[in-house]
Amino acid sequence: MEVIIQPTADAAAELVTALIDQALRAKPDLVLGLATGRTMEAVYARLVRRHREQGLSFKRCRTFNLDEYVGLPVGDPASYRSYMNHNLFAHVDIPFAHTHLPDGMAADLAAACDEYERCISKCGGIDFQLLGIGNDGHIGFNEPLSALQSRTREKALTPATVKQNSPLFADPSRMPRRALTMGIGTILDARRCVMLVTGAGKASVLAQAVEGPITAMISASALQLHPHCTVVVDEAATADLKATDYYRWIFENEPEWAPFRAKPKN
Q1: Most exposed residue of 72, 100, 222, 243, measured as fewest CB within 10 angstroms of its CB?
Q2: Which residues are annotated as catalytic?
């Protein structure tokens, strides 16, 4: 795991965008795992801008989102399908058939989860998985005590998650209490994981996830097991980290980060 510190939330989102851009240009048929939430909106806005202004193409890309609510029609403004259409899919050249989310309206939810896993496998697995982190350390909707080898499945949402997400609904009481989510094992199967974490409010849980023990209580801590995981953070989120000097040294000195470092002004 690498932790990369950027000065601001905007700079962190810009770096994550650049990493996705780099991956897409290197492999136009990239299988891209996507996340939702406020933190990701800055990334998707930048990807749309790069598509329009720099020719970044999604035409051959296939996408798989982490999760979707159970019982929420895809046309509902609060569904993650609506979120993705609004923030990314409707503004780039990706074919709609190449975009996938778990089917929270399926009559047989377990079968829908199994089919989602099969679909990922048929596409060759996820090349690049974008992640955020919940206030309690969850990735996707893998709530505390989620099995570290879990696959796509139905999960009951914790009161903390409901409290965090319900303001995104016009009527907060309408927020579903269950969701379908990629499992932690599914996420760890991705060839590369990039987690974006910004803001002082995430400082404590970030430190637990990247510097604490691997535990089912903080599902993001399982990313410590991944062979190619990058955590991009802003300064505000670093308050509780212990090894910040080393993390800064990595970004400033490792060759792989040279293309992303600011060029010195003449």
Answers
A1: 243
A2: 67, 136, 138, 143
**CB-based burial, 130-149: b 16+ in 10 Å, e otherwise:** bbbbbebbbbbbbbbebebe
Q: What is the pLDDT of residues 137-184, one digit of tens each?
A: 999 999 999 999 999 999 999 999 999 899 989 899 999 999 999 999
Residue type, 227: P
Dihedral sign of CA atoms 249, 250, 251, 253 in order: positive
DSSP state of 260: G
Q: What is the pTM of this model?
A: 0.96
Residue type, 242: K
Let me know: does 74 contact 105? Beta carbons within 8 Å: yes
Top-level CATH class of 2-260? alpha beta
Q: Where are the domains of the chain?
A: 2-260
In 3D space, the residue among 210, 228, 222, 192 whose CA is nearest the CA of residue 5 turns out to be 210
